[in-house]
Amino acid sequence: MGGNTGLIPLEFVLTNVLLAGFSDRALCDRVLNGTCLLDEADIEVRPEALPSALLDCRVSLPKLKKYCTPDAWSLLMASVAVKKKNVLWICGLRKEKDDGALKMVCCDRCLEWFHWYDMLDYSYECHCFLLPEKY
């Protein structure tokens, strides 16, 4: 067997999801195509707005460094450090901070956290892998 299966490598998909969590999705496409790097102005700096996936131990943050200018990388790491210090886990659907009152569950695909009651609603489906058709 062998050849192109048409499947997207999981690492590429996760990188796309992570980059889109702290920058513009269209810009992420250009970054992943190698046509530009993320600069300071492109990076979300509010710790509460950063994806919770950046706190996940399964994410290798250094692998994202090659997509950023040195200044943008420093800015992102400073914001992630504040997010870690304050333990800011945000519901990926409702964008509410976890206060510990409600159970939360992590999506194993995008590594975002969601309130458990959202998962009990059968109409809910994690949309983390809705990527542009070219992927």
TrEMBL record:
Assigned keywords, A-Z: Signal
Signal peptide interval: 1-28
Entry protein name: Secreted protein
Organism lineage string: Eukaryota, Metazoa, Ecdysozoa, Arthropoda, Chelicerata
